[in-house]
Design a protein that fits this description.
Shape: globular
Strand content: 15-25%
CATH superfamily: NAD(P)-binding Rossmann-like Domain
Structural class: alpha/beta
CATH class: Alpha Beta
Strand order of the largest sheet: 2-1-5-4-3-6-7-8-9
Radius of gyration: 19 Å
CATH architecture: 3-Layer(aba) Sandwich
CATH topology: Rossmann fold
Order of helices and strands: EEEHEHEHEHEHEHHHE
Helix content: 25-40%
């Protein structure tokens, strides 16, 4: 397990990983997931590991949950390693990437799945600290990842960066001042990265998650266990009205393996029963 502290950097790869030599642990392509929780991030890691990638899962809290995800991947015959990282700490993302590149293997796919949702807050209730924290997670974090990782990918002439985003990247609602500003900046950064690096073989895809995700450690924490379960029973489960993380993971995997003549640079995911936010409710006279 990777521990990132003030002056300490330690890496221990899970026992199921095959050691190929003292300089490099894995010969498999590496998929790094920043923000590997029990929702989209963890399921994306599982999906890539299932298809022959070594999954590097990084998250800020819940070491037991991280260990559980690594164990689940290994139980399915895949290989993975887990990292505890506070992404807003200075040099944390940079050290993580350089260490994986040196000790694990080339990062073929990086998934930037860090959330920056602080809930609905009016302007007066949104502190400068909260606003800045959202920006540091959503926008500066992606910038830091790109700055350290893209030179490796550029040297190899290929690479994929998949960026999880949200409806707020397209429209800022009341109570979402910090989140919308940060996620909107994330979207524009993706466009700038594409403009500079797509022709060099680096595919950056911006994925708008336009709906509620059936994830216990994101939506579940936001709503609380009782409201979350009620929502699952009325809208999710057999109703398929909540985005299933395992199904979203298939989309991420597809994006990472598109032919460069037909790359997708932006898409939105939503459950079949939800209308896109730019649509009005269907009028009863429409057939």
């Amino acid at each position: 397990m990777l521990a990132l502290g003030s002056n300490q950097f330690k890496l221990t790869v899970s026992a199921a990983s095959a050691v190929q030599g003292s300089d490099r642990i894995m010969t498999k392509p590496v998929c790094l997931v920043l923000g590997a929780g029990a929702g989209i991030g963890g399921n994306v890691a599982k999906r890539f590991a299932r298809d022959g990638y070594h999954a590097c899962l990084a998250r800020r809290s819940d070491k037991a949950g991280l260990d559980r995800l690594v164990s689940e991947i290994e139980a399915e015959g895949g290989s993975a390693s887990g990292y505890m990282i506070n992404a807003v700490e200075e040099d944390s993302i940079e050290r993580l990437v350089t260490d994986i590149e040196a000790q694990v293997g080339p990062i073929a796919v990086a998934v930037f799945n860090l959330g920056a949702q602080i809930g609905d807050r009016g302007l007066a209730s949104t502190s400068l600290k909260a606003f800045e924290m959202c920006w540091r997670l959503a926008t500066l974090g992606l910038f830091r990842l790109a700055r350290v990782l893209i030179p490796y990918m550029e040297e190899r002439g290929k690479g994929v960066i998949l960026v999880t985003s949200a409806t707020a990247a397209m429209r800022g609602n009341a109570g979402q001042h910090a989140h919308a500003a940060a996620i909107g900046g994330r979207r524009m950064l993706c466009q700038s990265l594409n403009a500079q690096y797509a022709s060099k073989g680096i595919h950056v895809a911006h994925i708008i998650v336009d709906g509620a995700v059936d994830a216990p450690d994101t939506l579940g924490k936001l709503l609380g266990p009782e409201r979350f379960q009620a929502l699952r029973e009325t809208k999710g489960m057999e109703h398929d009205g909540l985005i299933l993380p395992s199904e979203a993971a298939n989309t991420y995997f597809h994006l990472a393996h598109q032919h460069r003549s037909a790359w997708t640079f932006e898409l939105d995911l939503r459950a079949h029963s939800d209308l896109a936010w730019w649509n009005n409710a269907l009028r009863p006279d429409l057939k």
